[in-house]
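Proteins fold reproducibly. Look at a concrete instance:
___
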Amino acid sequence: MVVGEASYGDTSSAIEKCHSLPESSGTNNKKRMIDGPPEAYTVELEAELNQLQEENIKLKQCLAEIEQRQKQEVRCSLLYYSLASIEADHPQCSRG
């Protein structure tokens, strides 16, 4: 990445990656009736819980990646503007 160039594409691609995660069945708040013993319902709930926990882990990792990229973008911008300020104040130190 060139100093001063925003890498918004990186962040937006990470956001798109998060948006592409499959929606969990937990978003559907309809109660369902299950034929069979109560144990079957418990097993289904445990499976759904495991799925939601896995999805939560993936979403947290995705969020951490986005936050890390945003911090890096801020650091790059600060560095770029600091260098630009120094060059403006001291033209003899110009890179050009």
Notes: The first helix runs from residue 8 to 19. The chain has two helices and no strands. The helical segments are 8-19, 38-89. Residues 1-8 have pLDDT under 50 and may be disordered.
